[in-house]
Amino acid sequence: MNVRRRLISGTAVAAATALGLATLSACSSDSAAAANTDKFDVVASFYPMAFLAERIGGDHVHVTSLTEPGQEPHDLEISAKQTAALQESDAVLYLKNLQPSVDDAVAQSEIKTKIDAASLTTLEKHGNEVGGHAAEHDDHENEELAGLDPHIWLDPVRYSQVAEGVGKAFEKADPDHAADYRTNTAALVKELGALNTQFVNGLANTKTKVFVTTHAAFGYLAERYGLTEESISGLDPESEPSAARVKDLEKMARADGVTTVFYETLVSDKTAKTIASDANLRTDVLDPIEGITEKSRGKDYFSVQQANLKALQTALGTK
To answer: DSSP label at 29?
Structure first.
């Protein structure tokens, strides 16, 4: 299938847990609570990492997210309190080159177990990402990662690969509970496999393969399921598109049968609604799952992904 590769890019996340918003929301409000518990203390940088740690660690871990629910992850600046908690924790789980302040804190910490999700799967460049958020930080120590799309968690297959790596890291760092970590990881990987199958089947026969988003977070998802993402902006969800870009999008929408402009829960829907109105299109939510809030269509990763699948099926039209 020849699917055009257009503008697709990246962003990141916030906090809650597989057990429900309340659990992680409570502990994430005080990051210092991450350290010195009688469990395996894990600091996660943002929601997708916290979700993995909670599901894989189960009762043996105490997980705290550095990014609050509802907070735009790129804007995170780590506090002194969070830095201290990080130093005293047993492990940190993060996605390198996504949140520069997290990268700096992890690099300077003496924490023994540092788990970089980006090293557990393959990252790619999508469209014009090289000009986006990551490129702004290309003076960072890992310049080779600049321009790569960080949204690996939106692809269930890549997210599953990360889960397997996290499970192995937990086993090594906390061998007393290795058997449980293996069991929990296997169950999560199986559930992610089932989700992938639902996306494959659910998006196999659609009237159009093109969808429009406010910012480019769904590159891996689009590639996995034979779709094409057109983004209004690049990596930065707050950036304003050029007049030429808006005109191109409107022309493309007519040509490709696009019905919907997707926006997300953590940023303003103003641009999406303006473009949709001008082009006589609908608007709907496609959630990059950067954090679970009351506005989220679901209480955890899986339920939000189910909502995303339904939104895409409606927008693309099922045959």
So the answer is: T
CA distances from 226 to 97, 158, 198 (A): 27, 16, 14
Query: Residue 166 — left, alpha, or beta (φ > 0 → left; ψ -120 to 50 → alpha)?
Result: alpha
CA separation for the pair 297, 307 (Å, rounded): 6
**Is a pLDDT exceeding 50 seen at residue 132?**
no
Q: At what angle do helices 47-57 and 21-28 cross, to 10 degrees?
A: 110
Q: Three-state secondary structure along 110-133?
A: CCCEEEEHHHHCCCCCCCCHHHCH
Cβ count within 10 A of residue 207: 11
- Runs of H (alpha helix) within 31-74: 47-57
Q: Cα(279)–Cα(86) distance, rounded to whole angstroms?
A: 48
* Total length of the chain: 319
pTM over 0.85: no
Amino acid at 9: S
Q: Tell me what the pLDDT averaged over the chain comes to.
A: 82
C-alpha to C-alpha distance for 72 and 98, rounded to whole angstroms: 12
